[in-house]
Amino acid sequence: GRKPANPAFWWVSDGGEEVKWSFEELGSLSRKAANVLSEACGLQRGDRVMAVLPRVPEWWLLNVACMRAGIVFIPGTSQLTAKDLSYRLQAAKAKCIITSDTLAPALESALPGSQFLKSKLLVGRGSRDGWLNLKELL
């Protein structure tokens, strides 16, 4: 028999949950995620996206999707204050923010001052008014 291919991506949570993607699966998922960013979020090549996410599989998926679509991926940490986040969104002229359903409530106070922000993308199972859900769009 043939030896199975090594995974392109292998993530294990603190609780032992595993996500393994082959190169084919990562390619397919990243194409779909790039389409979500381009179509549902209305982003174009050169636009900037700020992601404030824990290191969940979607963090890497969106990073690859941004490379595919020519979108600039700006990682942020959950330790940013509302003032820090607002400044970075304005300075970067970010058109989209991506965060988890658990971090979204804390980030929303920084969003009204951002004049460039067009879309908000949520990673997780939850939903919020005014936010698109990545899982549903994939």
From TrEMBL:
EC assignment: 6.2.1.2
GO molecular function: ATP binding; fatty-acyl-CoA synthase activity; medium-chain fatty acid-CoA ligase activity
Record's catalysed reaction(s): a medium-chain fatty acid + ATP + CoA = a medium-chain fatty acyl-CoA + AMP + diphosphate
Keywords (A to Z) from UniProt: ATP-binding, Fatty acid metabolism, Ligase, Lipid metabolism, Nucleotide-binding
AMP-dependent synthetase/ligase domain residues: 2-124
A Pfam family the protein falls into: AMP-binding
GO biological process, one term: fatty acid biosynthetic process
Entry GO CC: mitochondrial matrix
Similarity remark: Belongs to the ATP-dependent AMP-binding enzyme family.
Protein name: medium-chain acyl-CoA ligase
Organism, scientific name: Dryoscopus gambensis
